[in-house]
Structure formats: structure tokens, C-alpha cells
Amino acid sequence: MENPLDFLLIQPIYLPLLSLFLNLVLLLILFGSWVYKKSAACENSDGFIAKRSTKMYNKLVVVSCVSLSVFYSVLSLLSCVRWHSNVWTLSDLLLAALTWGAISMYLRGLYIDSHEQKLPYLLRVWWVLYFLLSCYRLVVDFALYKKQELVSVHNVVSELVGVCAGLFLCCSCLWKKGEEGERTTLLEEPFLSENEGCDDEVTTPFAKAGFLSLMSFSWMSPLVTLGNEKIIDSKDVPQVDSSDRAENLFRVFRSKLEWDDGVRRITTFKLVKALFLSVWRDILLSFLFAFAYTMSCYVAPYLMDSFVQYLNGQRQYKHQGYVLVTIFFVAKLVECQTRRHWFFRGGKAGLGMKAVLVSMIYEKGLTLPCHSKQGQGQTSGEIINLMAVDADRLNAFTWFMHDPWILVLQVSLALWILYKSLGLGSIAAFPAFILVMLANYPFAKLEDKFQSNLMKSKDNRMKKTSEVLLNMRILKLQGWEMKFLSKILDLRHVEAGWLKKFVYNSAAMSSVLWTAPSFISATAFGACVLLKIPLESGKILAALATFRILQSPIYKLPETISMFVQVKVSLGRIASFLCLDDLEKDVVERLTYSEMALEVSNGCFSWDDSSPIPTLRDVSFEVSQGMNVAVCGTVGSGKSSLLSSILGEVPNISGTVKVFGRKAYVAQSPWIQSGKVEDNILFGKPMEREWYERVLEACCLNKDLELLPFNDQTVIGERGINLSGGQKQRIQIARALYQNADIYLFDDPFSAVDAHTGSHLFKEVILRILKDKTVIYVTHQVEFLPEADLILVMKDGKITQAGRYNEILDSGTDFMELVGAHTDALATVDTYEQGCASSESTTNKEKEAPKLEKDSGNKPRGQLVQQEEREKGKVGFTVYKKYMALAYGGAVIPIILLVQILFQILNIGSNYWMTWVTPVSKDVEPPVSGFTLILVYVVLAIASSLCILVRALLVSMTGFKMATELFTQMHLRVFRASMSFFDVTPMGRILNRASTDQSVVDLRLPGQFAYVAIAAINILGIMGVMIQVAWQVLIIFIPVVAASAWYRQYYISAARELARLAGISRSPLVHHFSETLSGVTTIRSFDQEPRFLGDIMKLSDCLSRLRFHSTGAMEWLCFRLELLSTIAFAVSLVIVVSAPEGTVNPSFAGLAITYALNLNSLQSTLVWTLCDLENKMISVERMLQYVDIPSEPSLVIESTRPEKSWPSRGEITISNLQVRYGPHLPMVLHGLTFTFPGGLKTGIVGRTGCGKSTLIQTLFRIVEPTAGEIRIDGIDILTIGLHDLRSRLSIIPQDPTMFEGTVRSNLDPLEEYSDDQIWEALDKCQLGDEVRKKELKLDSSVSENGQNWSVGQRQLVCLGRVLLKRSKVLVLDEATASVDTATDNLIQETLRQHFRDCTVITIAHRISSVIDSDMVLLLDQGLIKEHDSPGRLLEDKSSSFSKLVAEYTTSSESKFSRSC
Q1: Region class of 51: left (phi > 0), else alpha (psi between -120 and 50), else beta
Q2: Using one digit for the tens of pLDDT, what is the confidence trace for 431-456?
Q3: Quick one: pLDDT at residue 33?
Q4: What is the mean pLDDT of the chain?
Q5: Rounded to an integer, what distance in angstroms lies between the CA atom of residue 942 and that of residue 334?
Q6: I need a surface site. Which of 193, 299, 388, 1450 has the fewest CB within 10 A?
Q7: DSSP summary character for residue 870
Q8: Any residues with CB less than 8 A from the CB of 492 and at least 6 apart, and which?
């Protein structure tokens, strides 16, 4: 038997090819290494003390490399000009010159710039290979010389130089290895730079991975292994590398972003450019890998004709078959390696771009003025959508970003190979390809239009969803939730209309492109028949192999076009958002030192630039250091706007505002972050325990904290849901107090607390702790005004009076009206006290309740907000079953599979036909004519095309139906959920499902399912073809399939949990985004923007590290699967080549190999898609979690529906009522038993947190009683439907709420009343004149959350609603807390007039609001302390109510007396 190496000795042309390949590989690696080092931060290390001899060797090595580069350059020049060598030899010499030049530059940078002494391991291996190859080539030259076949002497000279240089370089490798042990290392721990944290010092597995580990993704193995041993938690996942963290990427992005003409105007192109420059290294590496992958794909089609001819017996040299198999194998190895790293680097770049965009959108949200959000349509829901959907889309885009140029390159290579195989007939393929592209142009245009409208409609839906979720409590109290659900469903219906057009258009486009390979091949073969070009099976198979490789990017083109369109729309939306005007920073001039703390001169401010009447005008006043300034006025007079103008929130039309020192601000509507009480108070400042305790004491928080389950470590729910209004306000005050600022701005913070607590806060906070600070406070409590150094009285946006209390008391009517209203309220209280002074106390007190015992340690106690629910293990079959059943009970799925199987059979049949009827060589006569050949092929192609169209339409129809049904079911269950669900579920979790997860179900899942079916059926078809040719391939296929299944099972445990963790980590990101937008004024007032931007970057990094390692795990799996498939492919080729001549049909064997070329990519793509599908199904799993949440009791129970006149008397009887907010939380109400008499007015009083609001929520069944019962007119409210109950009761809630829309839609959301009735209600609630001033009257716009209306005006709108409703039972929950005393008196008079015969239950902090009640209920720590008429309670001077009234009147009168 001859030695196989003999072939190489007589065919030396393969040696330049091998050298060419090695040089090309090294060049790519060196370039990649240079890119990596160029972008990484260079660290100068003087840790090595090198010897003089080492430096000498360094120079010699570099000189040797430069010399070799010059030598090969000269040889290449001579080869071209004088020796006229063949193209491969010339290319080898040119590339060798380039490679050695690159090595010398690389080593120079290694030795000189970074002072590195150790040679890279790869370079050592390459030098050894170079030496061995040079030796071998020299042996070949001598062998040829002996046979007298040596072409030229310069080859020998070249190999001799190579051997000598290689020997020296190998010696230098050994020298370096020996020198490593002699170096002295200075082990010094570097100091942390000022902007580095401890996390930056952690070396990640990816960063410290070696070359082989990086190439094989082995750095992921520990995490994948851990996933098989346990369920992975977030703490098990390593951090991302410091260079990939949001902070560093954002810094680079900001430095590269170019603004037009110094103003904040940015185009989409400039945004893309800055994004590219921020992650250019990964994009460039992915580009190089994609290029190498594309080139390697076409090696097999190029050699296919030679392979078929070899099988047919036309062998050019011995062992040609094994050489071809080796080339096929090496090409597939390169294809496997480059494909995986292309996707990995692209995914890594996508994560970086998303992190940058999230940070940029968030920063923009922090700088966006409130009036910009109102006037320019950018609500919080839309901004969240930019982050949750648009930024995430750019992350997905990186998988597609190289596809356009790859398609052009592949088409060019394909046309070249076709020309080689088919000659002039291939020219027809090019216009056919152009025709296919032109046919898709109208579809692409429509896709752009549909996508743009789809995103706009999604924005509208998310905006409404966000607003509704934020105000779900008021919707349930009013019984409006189903009406607002119908509005969201209407918006979804509009969105679904565009979605339907989008998916059907995509189906049409994919159908055209899926038929493209058949159309192009039929055109090319038809042209060959017309031009009488003989068609041989080898050439046909080369063409078919080319078309099969080309079909993958063509099949992917619809998705690519769709993704480019989506990204274009998303980037345009983001760029438009970034172009919105920022809050003007020069509105407020900050003084470094001044005796004046605040100075406003001729100020004119307006929230709406287009309004002819400014919000504030002619505002001028000065505040000295340490002054105490009070701002008062009626509802809507501009008090809150004045504070906002000092903060710089209101656009300045004219005048100046000068402020000295740091500011602290307390908003009228409390803004509380989700998190611990302590974190809310510290608000980013370090803990100073003594000062912290003093602040808690001053704000009366110690007793409240004792009642909380974990004291100040208790986690506050979203929007402070587990705190009372007074507790939230006092935490706000404590937050401001702890900052120890210079100027304090309080926007009526005392209205949310009871009179006693308000007096204590004013005394301890304003008059003691802040006595040396500058304080400006808005208040409706007139009793606090005498203590002020300056009082500003406002009316209609102007300061009408300014001075001390006594100075302005008699100087105008505006202040007199406020003081007079307060005096009247005090007089009412005095009347009651005097009328009861002479009587004997006959107070009918409830039994003194025992003190509330502290919860014992064995009681279940826990935080209100629990960690988000996360399924464990694989996605259950039930999830798939439920998802499939959403569309026509799953009946369409088998039809789709049958159509795809039919397509596969027709596709294979058409190719079989072409290989069967075409001869192997020119000498054989074809069995059929050329016309019959093409006709049958075209018929089969048309039939397969129809299958494609039917499949695409069925997939689109089914996916659309599933998405629509899942959306409806989830939203229905969410809206029917009890309020406790919203209390413990941050809004971000729901928005995440309604936005990101819904987008996955809308657009991604149907395609994923379809591709799984397509790939699986395709693989079965390929295996069938190969087995039919050579059944022996089963021997290798069975273990490969088994190994692939094992690898997938081994991988999926870690991947699934990583995907779940990534899904969960999105929710805090969305929630933090939403929370920040609602409290942006508070954040800016404390100058906390940098800290909050840092927080969002940390949350973004948390999501990035999970997704990064999820991508790494995916590539870890796919690399191993493709490697297995490549080995199976190579073994199959060896089996075919080794078969005895004549036993294998060359044409069918070639066809089998043609199909097998796609086997590795198909198999890895199938497993990848299966795994990605399971990850995407987590979105369905998460949505189904909300489909399964418990619902509230029925809205209507037909068997127990009350009469329409119910309640006729309004008598409410409560027996042994016990309430807690959750099974793991302490009891709030402890066995209350009492009666609200029908037609009487009852006032409920008590300290903040005593259970007043909880009692009201139980009455409306917002909270279901733990025990006991409530009867209204004898009917147990637990036995009737919720809608029947809530629609018969009226409430003015503690937090006034308005919805985006119009004045009419806010007063009458159910559209039940006429305009005349609405105007009548507006007049009764003192808003008629205000609405008539507006141009659109009842159709005047209301912005998101009613931000263009004051809090007091919102409260009056709530009063207008109940005036329209006219229920027999009316509940006022702190209804007048946000209005001045005069307006409060008018409201009370209105209520007395229009609800004279109704049962009115009032919770109020103003004694004057409840003093004229028929009955008073006093609660203390969830127990009834007193329950009787005000008169009887006042007769008993020892009663708590009497003491509360005495405290109120004494404090008020004392302040008045001091002022007189």
C-alpha cells in the first residue's frame, strides 16, 4: 500500500494553499487581538525586571520578522514580474509578507508599549508550525529535485530561509519560557480609582479566559455545570466585564454623540453612529467572523463538481477523494467556529447598545420638564415603551445587522460558482434575483408603514394601561374597572388591526422569498436549455448546493427586512424623544454666597407656552437667610406653581429667580420609592444614627415604625401602598429633613395628617429643627400662618398680599376671606363645646379596648412586596398545550405540519428529478428532453411554492389568534384581580408582561414555532436522502443524535433559569423607570439625578449579565452541536469515498452531500431554536401566571341582586369586623362592632394609621373581611355582586385622581349624564367658572394623571363625580385635605344641601369637618375607642375626642392670640 504522503510530493500546489490558509488565519487572529487591545484600557505594569539579554532577544525577534516580511515582498515582486508564478504561489508570498509585517508590528507594540515580555501562546504554536511546514516543503523540493521535476531554484532558497528563521524563532520561544521563571514580579495591589467600586475588581470568566477557552466557549462550562447541579440564582451568575458595563459604555456613547449646532437636535444617523462607536470592537469582530463564515460556506459548492466526477471514476490523482474530504471538513470547521463567534459578538454588541439606550432614555426622562410630557405627548407609558420595546429591539437587531452585505457577497459568490458550472446560463440567474428583490419592495414599504402604526398604537395602549394600573384603586372603588378595560381592549383592537396587516404582509413577503431559490434555479436551468448548454449532474449539483446555501439568507430576508424596518422606526422614535427640549437649567440662578436665600424679580411663569394667560405673573419677593415664609390662597391660585418655579420646573417667560444653597422639597402628593423605610429617609446619604433618630422623633415616626413588621427595614409597596396617607407624608418630611439642606420647600404637607400630628410637625420641624433654615411652606391651615416671618397671599397666579400676619390682616380682602373661613370653623367647634359645658357627661363609650399586643414571634410576618414569582425547572407541557389551544383549539397545527411535509417532499423530489435525468458526463445521452426536464421541475417548484404560501398564511393566522386571545385573557384576569394583588405587585411587573412579553407573543413566537417544524422536517428529509444513498451513515448519525440530545438536556437547565432570571430582572428595570418618572420633580429638587442614573445602570448591568451568559450558554451548546454534525458529515463523506467504485450512484451521492452541507447549521439552528423557543415560551408562562391569578368575587350575582332602589335608608351595620391586608401581615382592624345610622352624618377620627381608611376599603370590599359582616339596609354585602355594591355607593378618595382625556370624560366616564347635568355638578363643586374660562369648555384636555390641574382642583372634580352620582351612601376619605378652609366650608355646605337625607361617612383631619356630624367614631390602633354624638363626647372632658378638639382649638387660638 502506498504512503498517502506520496500525493503531496507530486502535487506541491497544495502546499502554498496550506500556507495561504495558515497565514490568513493568523492575520485574522492578530487583527482581532489588536482590535481587542486597542479598545481595552491599557495598564502600565513595571512588575518585570527584564535582563539585558532579554531585551536583545526582543530586538532580534522583531528584526527577524521584519526581514522575513521584506524577503517575501521581494520574492512576490519577482514572482509577478519575472518568474510568472501561478496565482496560488503569488498569493501565498504576498500573504506571507503581510503576515510577517503584521507580526513585527504586533510584537513591537507588545514589547515597547505595554512592556510585556511573555510571547503569546498562539504565536509560539504558529512559529513551530511555520518551522515544520518550511522543513516539509524543503523535503518536497529535494524530492522533486531528485525526480528532476523541480520548477525553480528560488523555491529552495525560500524554504531554506524559512527553516533558518523558523529555527531561530522556535529557540526564542524556548528562551522566553526559561526567562519566565527568572523574572521578578512586583505584586502590588492597585488602589481603587475614584470612580471604581469593588465590583470592578472582579475578573470575570470571560475576561480571564484563554484563547482556546474563548474559541470553544469553555469559559461557560462551570455555569452550565452548576445549572445541572442546582437551580441557578442571580448571585451564581458572574458580572459582565467592566468594559461592557453601562457606565463605561454610556460615557463613550456620550463622547461620540454629535448634536446639531450645539442644540439638542439629533438625527437617526448620528444616533446610529454613536451607538456603533460605543461597541465598535464587537461589531467589527462580528463582521470579520461573518465574512470568514460566508467565504467558508462556498468552498463545498465550488468543489462539488470535482467530487461528483471523482465518484464517477474521473480521478485526477491518487487519494483525491480523501483530499476533497479533508478540504470539506476544514471548511466546515471554519464555518462552525466563525458562525458561533459571529453570533456571540453580535449579541454582545446588542446588549451594549441596549444598555446605552436605556441609560440615555432614562437620563432624558430625568431632564424632561413636566410641561414637555404634557404638551408633546410623551407620557410615562410611552417613555417606558421606548425603553422596554424600542431599546430591546436594537438588541435583537444585532443578529440581523450583517445580513444585507452578506446577501450581496453570497449572491456574488453564487453567481461566480454558477458561471463556473453553467456558463452563460447563469447570467439569467442575476435578473431573476433582481426581480425577486423588486417584487419584495412594495411589501417592504408596507411593512415600514404597518410597523410604524403598530408602534404608535402600542404606545397609546401602554399609556392608557400605565395610567389605569396607577389608579386601579379608584377604578374599583367607583366600579369603573370594566369600562376602562373596554377602553384598553378598544386600543388593543386598533393595535391588533395593524398587527394583523403586519403579519399577513410578512407572510406574503416570506412566500415570495421562499420561492426565490426555485424560481432562480428554474430560470438558470431554463436558460441553459435554451442556450443548448449541456447539463451534467455534477454541474447541476454544484448549482443546487449553491442555491441551498443561498436559500438560508433569502429565507431569512423577510425577517431581516422586518427587523430593519422595526429598528428604523424605533431609532426614529428614540431620536425624536432625545430631541425634546430639556428642562432649562438657567431658569434658576444659583448663588455661591448671598445674604438673600431667595430672590424673585418680576417673574412671569407658564406651564403652557401657548396660553395667553401665564400661570404666574408679576411675582416679586425676597427671602433672607433663616426666614420662615408661608404661602396661602384658594384652590388653583398658583401656590404649588410658585414652589415649582423656585425649583426651576416652570418655564420662565420673564424675570429672574436667584437661589442660594441646597434645596429640599416635600411634594403635595407624596412620592415614596419602593424599598425600605430607611432607604426612603436616607435618600442616598450615609447613615448618621444620631441625626436619623432625631429626624424620626421630630416626624412622629417612631410609634408607626414599631407597628410595622420590620420597623424601618419594612419594605414599602409600590406608591407606599402599605402606608397611610399621613405616614407617607411624614416619611417625605423626614427625607427632606435628613438632607440638612439650606432651603426647604413644603407643599402643604400637613393636610394629610391629623390636627394633633400636624401641630406637632409644625412645632418640631418648622419651629425647632429648621429654625435657622430658610423655609417656604404652602398651607391651608390658617393657624400656622401667625408664626411666619412673611406671608404670601396668592390669587389667580399673582401675589396679592405680602407681609407678616398682623400687617396684611386688614390690608386686603383675600387674606381676610381665608382667616374668616377659619374663624367660622373655630366658632362652630366652640358652639359645640359651650353647648355641652354645663351638661353632665353621659358619654356612651365603647368598652375600653385592651392594648394591642405585639405580634408574637411565632406569628407569620413578612414583607408586603414579595419576590416575583418564578417557575422552576423546564417549561411545562401544560404551558405549550394552553398556548396551542388558544387558536381554534389547536386544530390548525397538524395542517401546518402536513403542508410543510408536503413542501419538503416536493422540494426533494424536484432536486431528485434534476439529478436523475441529467447525465454524469457529456458522453451520456439524457433520458428526457430539455423541455420536459424544465417543465417537470417548474411544476414541482410551483406546487412547493403554493405549500409555502399556505403554510405562511396559516402560521400568521394562528399566531395572531393566539396573541389576541392571550392578551384578552390576561387583561381580563388582571382587571378582575383583587386590590391585594395590586398592593403586592409592583406595576413594572404587569407592564413588563403587557409590553415586552406581549411583543414576544405578537411577533416572535409564531415564527419560532414555524422554524422548529421547518428545521426538524428538513433534517429528517436530509437524513432520509443520505440513508438512501449509504445506509452506513446511520452508524454515525445515531450516536451524534444521541450526543446532541444529551448536550441539549445538559444545557437547558442552566439556559432556562438564565432566561427566567432575565425576564424577572426586566421588571425592576421597568418599575424603577416608571417610579422615577412619577417622582422626577422630587429627584431633581434634591439634585439626585446622578445617583438615580447610576441605579438604572446597575439594574441594566444586572439584566445584561444574565442575557450575556444566556447568549454564551447558547453558543456553548451550538458550537458543540455543530462540531458533532461536522464530524458526522466528514465520516459520511469518508464512507461514500471509501465505497467500492460503482456501488454508489454519483449523482445521488452528490445530491446527498449537497443536502448534508446544511446539516450542521440546520441541526445547531434547530436545537438553538428549540432552546430559544423554550426561553421565549417563558413569556407565555409569565402571562399565563396572570391568567391564573385569583379573581375578586363576581361583579354581579343574579340570584341576590338588590333592588334598584337599594339602599333606600343607608343604614350600615358592622359586626365583629376583623381585617388584615395579607395572610403574612398583622391584623389592622380588631373585631369592630357598631352602626352607621341611615340618613345621618358620621365622622371618623383618629391618629394617622389607626385604620380609618382600611374601614372604608372594607366597606367597598376592596379588602375582604377576615371575619365578621357588614350589612347595608339589612343586606349582607358579601352576598351581592361587587358591581352592584360599588355602583350604589359614592366616595371621594384620599388621593384625588384624574385621567388623561377631557373634563367631561373625567366627570362622567360611563357616559350616563347630559352636558347640563355635568355643568350643574361643576357649579356645585366650585369649578364651573374655571372650566368656562377654558377655550374647549367640557372638552378641555386633562393630561396624564391630571398634572395640568392642581391637587385641590382634582379633589373638586372628585366631588363633582359624586354630585352626579347622587348615591344614598357617601364616603369622604380626607376629601378636603387639599383645599383651603374657605373652599372646605363651601364643600361642606354643598354636601349638607345636596346629601341631606344620605348617610355620609367622613374621615377628616380638620375638626371643623366632623364637628357638625351627627355621630363621631374614634379609632385607635384598629379598635373603637369612642362612638357617640359630638355633643356627648365633648361633655366628657376626659374623652379622647374632647381632648382632640381642645388641642385643635387651643393651638389655633393661641396662635391667633399671639398674632394679635
Answers
A1: beta
A2: 887 887 788 778 878 887 888 888 88
A3: 57
A4: 76
A5: 36
A6: 193
A7: -
A8: 461, 964, 967, 968, 971
**Cross-strand pairs, 1373:** 1403
C-alpha cell at 1330: 374655571
Q: Per-residue pLDDT averaged across 1181-1208, rounded?
A: 86
Can you state the angle between helices 516-530 and 403-422, rounded to 10 degrees? 20
Separation of alpha carbons 744 and 747, rounded Å: 10
Give DSSP secondary structure letters for 1342-1409.
E-GGGTTS-HHHHHHHHHHHHHHH--SEEEEESTTTTS-HHHHHHHHHHHHHHSTTSEEEEE-SSHHH
Is 640 in contact with 605 (CB distance < 8 Å)? no
Alpha-carbon distances of 975 from 457, 1288, 1358, rounded to whole Å: 21, 20, 22
Model confidence at 747: pLDDT above 80: yes
Could you give the CA distance from residue 471 to residue 96 in angstroms, rounded to a whole number?
A: 71
Q: 3-class SS at 1117?
A: helix
Cβ partners under 8 Å of residue 1231, min gap 6? 1216, 1217, 1218, 1267, 1268, 1423
Instruction: Quickly count: other Cβ atoms within 10 Å of residue 660's Cβ.
Output: 20
Count the neighbouring beta carbons within 10 Å of the beta carbon of residue 1361.
20
Mean pLDDT lowest among 148-162, 956-970, 1327-1341, 1431-1445: 148-162
pTM over 0.70: no
Report how far residue 371's alpha carbon sits from residue 435's, in angstroms, rounded to the nearest whole number: 51
Kindly report each contact of residues 923-928 with a partner whose C-beta sits within 8 Å and lies 24 or more positions away, as own/partner. 926/535
**What pLDDT does 891 receive?**
86
For the ranges 177-186, 232-241, 387-396, 983-992, the lowest mean pLDDT is seen at 177-186
First to last CA, the chain: 124
Question: What are phi and psi for residue 512, nearest 5 degrees?
Answer: -60, -45
pLDDT band at 494 (very low <50, low <70, confident <90, very high): very high
d(CA 222, CA 225): 5
The CB density around residue 1223, as the number of other CB atoms within 10 Å, is 9
Over 1159-1191, what HEC string results? HHHHHHHHHHHHHHHHHHHHHHHHHHHHHCCCE
- What is the length of the chain? 1460
Please give the single-letter amino acid code of residue 871: E
Which residues are 1399's β-sheet partners? Answer: 1369
d(C-alpha 1262, C-alpha 1265), whole Å: 9
The yes-or-no verdict on residue 702 having pLDDT over 80 is yes
Over range 1263-1292, report the average pLDDT: 87
CB atoms within 10 A of CB 500: 18
**pLDDT, tens digit, for every residue of 1026-1061?**
777 666 666 677 777 788 778 878 887 787 788 778
* Beta carbons of 138 and 92 less than 8 angstroms apart: no
| Least confident among 563-572, 1146-1155, 1374-1383 | 1374-1383
Question: Do the Cβ atoms of 1191 and 1249 come closer than 8 Å?
Answer: no
pLDDT at residue 174 is higher than 70: no
| Rounded alpha-carbon distances, angstroms, from residue 1372 to 94, 750, 826, 1421, 1438 | 89, 18, 21, 21, 28
Buried b (16+ CB within 10 A) or exposed e, 620-629: ebebebebbb
Q: What is the pLDDT of residue 1183?
A: 87
**Cell 389547536, located at residue:** 890
Specify the DSSP element, H or E, that contains 485: helix 481-514
How many angstroms separate the CA atoms of 995 and 385, rounded? 7
Q: What's the rounded Cα separation, in Å, for the pair 390 and 33? A: 33
pLDDT, position 854 = 34
Return the pLDDT at 52: 39
Cis peptide before 1207 (omega within 30 of 0): yes
